[in-house]
Amino acid sequence: MRQRIRYLSSPPSFVSFAAVGGREEGQGPLGPCFDHLDPSDRFGQTSWERAEGEMGRIALNFALKKASLSPQQLSVLFAGDLQNQCVASSGGLYSFGIPYIGLYGACSTCTEGLLSLSVWLSEQADRQDVMGAAVTTSHNCAAERQFRQPIEYGGQRPPSAQWTATAAGAFILGSREGDVRITEVCPGKIVDGEISDATNMGAAMAPAAVDTLLTYMQQSGRAPSSFDAIVTGDLGAVGTSLLQEMLLEEGIDVRQNHLDCGNLLFDSERQDVHSGGSGCGCSASVLATHILPALMRAEMKDVLFLSTGALMSTSSVQQGEHIFGIAPLIRIQRF
Amino acid sequence: MKNEPYTSRIRRHTPPSPTKKNCLFAFLIGGGICFAGQWLLYLYEALGATRDDASTLVTVTLIFLSALLTGIGVYDRIARVAGAGTLVPVTGFANAVVSPAIDTKQEGFILGVGAKIFTVAGPVILYGVLCGAVYGVLYSVILWFV
C-alpha cells in the first residue's frame, strides 16, 4: 500500500502563533482568546477584500511580536485565503518581504500551510534556527460577495449552511527543538462525495476527512483513543455527525475525542450560524486560540489536526459540477 | 447501513428547514407589509390623490423604505426571519437591486454598480419582460377569434 504518512525526522516546533477575528468571532466562545478583534469587521480598510489581507498582516505581526522576531528572521512564508487568486495573502503580506509561497486549499489551507512549512523546515534541521511562517485568512463578507449573494441581500439560508469565519491565524515554526511540534503529516486525497449543493459543505467535506482518518489509523496502527483530540476543520454540525457515523461503520469510534473547529468557534444556540463556522480562517483561528494554547499548557499532549476543504468555484457550482473535498492532516505533539 | 447511498445518508443527517415557522413568519411579516401598504393607500387618498396615483405612491414609498433599510443594514436581518414575507412584496425586489449596488461600489460606477446592479434581479426582469411579451402576443391572437 502507498505510504501516505510522512514521519518528520526532525520535527519543527511552534515558536509563536496569533489569531485575529471579527464581530461574530469575538462574540463566540473563543472570543477572549483572540489577539485582536475588530467588531466592525473592517480592520480599518475601505473594502472587505483589503480587510481580509489586513487581518493576515495583523496576525503575522502579533505572532512576530510575541516571539520578539523581525520578518527578516523568517526564511519562508506559506499563506492562502479564500479570494480569487489568493490576493488577500499577496496584498496583505507583501510588506513583510518574506519569500512567499501562495497556497489554495479552500478551507483546508491552514493545515496545507502547516504541512508544507513543517516538511520544509524538517529538511533543513541541520541548520540551527531556521524559521518560517504559515498564515491563513478568510473574511465572511469577501466570501459572501464572491461565492454567494450581496451582503445586504435579504434571504433565508437552509439549516445545513455554514457561516464563513472572519478570522486569521498566523503560525511561526522553527527547526530548533521546542515543546510543541509537528511530528507527522499526511496529505489529503481529492474525494468526490458527489455533492453539488453549495449550502451543504459539511456533507461535501466529510468523506475526505473519513478517507484521511481511515488511512492514518490503518497506516499508523494507532487507535483514536490514543489522541487527546482529533480536530477537524469546519465540518459543522451536519458534517460532524456524518463523519462520526461513517467512521463508526468502519470500526473507528472518534465520538469521545472528536472536535470540530466549526462547532467550537461559534455558539450555534446563540449565534445565527446554522450548521457552524467555515472558511479557512475557522480552523486557523481555533488552532491558535484553543488547540495550541491547550498544548502549550500541557492540557493536551497529542492531537490530530485536519482542516477540511471544499474544492469548488462559483462557475463550477453553477455548472453543476461536484464539490470535491480534501482533508490534509498533521499530528501535533507536546514533548 | 454501510452501503447506504451517500445522498440518503446526508438527508438523514441534515435537519429540515423549519417550514411551519418560516410560513408563519412569512405570513405575519409579509401580511404586515401589505397591511401597511393598504393603510398608506388610504392615507394618500385622504390627502387628495386619485386611486391610481395613490397606489403608485404606495409602491414608491415601500421601495424607498426597503432601499433605505437595505442601505443601513437592517433589511437582511428582517429577511432572515421573514423569508418569503419580505421577498414576495415589492420590497424584495428593491432589496435585490439595492444590495448589489452597495456591494459593487468598490469596483467603480461602470464595471461595478453599472454592470452588476441586476445580478440578483436581472433574471426576474428578463423573464418577466419576456413572459409579458409572449402573453401580449397570445392575448392579441385570442382577441382575433372572440
Compressed to H and E, one letter per element, the order of chain A equals EEHEHEHEHEHEEEEHEHEHEHEEHEE
The helix/strand order of chain B is HHHHHHHH
Form type of chain A: globular
CATH architecture of the largest domain in chain A, by name, is 3-Layer(aba) Sandwich
Number of individual domains of chain B: 1
Question: Any idea of the CATH class of the largest domain in chain A?
Answer: Alpha Beta
Give the tally of structural domains of chain A: 2
Any idea of the CATH topology of the largest domain in chain A? Peroxisomal Thiolase, Chain A, domain 1
Largest sheet of chain A: 6 strands, mixed
Beta-strand content estimate of chain A: 15-25%
| Nearest-integer average pLDDT of chain A | 93
Straight-line distance between termini of chain A: 31 Å
The overall average pLDDT of chain B, rounded, is: 92
Global morphology of chain B: extended
Tally of helical runs of chain A: 10
Structure overview:
- The complex is a heterodimer of chains A (335) and B (146).
- Chain A is an alpha/beta fold and 335 residues long.
- In chain A, 34% of the residues lie in helices and 23% in strands.
- Chain A folds into two domains: 6-174, 3-Layer(aba) Sandwich (Peroxisomal Thiolase, Chain A, domain 1); 180-334, Peroxisomal Thiolase, Chain A, domain 1.
- Chain A has ten helices and 17 strands.
- In chain A, the strands form four sheets. A six-stranded mixed β-sheet of chain A has the order 1-9-17-14-11-12, with helices on both faces. Chain A has a six-stranded mixed β-sheet with strand order 3-2-8-6-4-5, with helices on both faces.
- The longest helix of chain A has 20 residues, at 201-220.
- The radius of gyration of chain A is 18 Å and the shape is globular.
- Chain B has one domain (17-145).
- The termini of chain B are far apart.
- Chain B has eight helices and no strands.
- Chain B has 146 residues and is mainly α.
- Chain B has helices at residues 6-13, 19-46, 51-71, 75-82, 84-87, 90-103, 109-116, 122-145.
- In chain B, helix 3 runs parallel beside helix 6 and helix 6 (90-103) packs antiparallel against helix 7 (109-116).
- Chains A and B meet through helix 7 of A and helix 1, helix 4 and helix 6 of B.
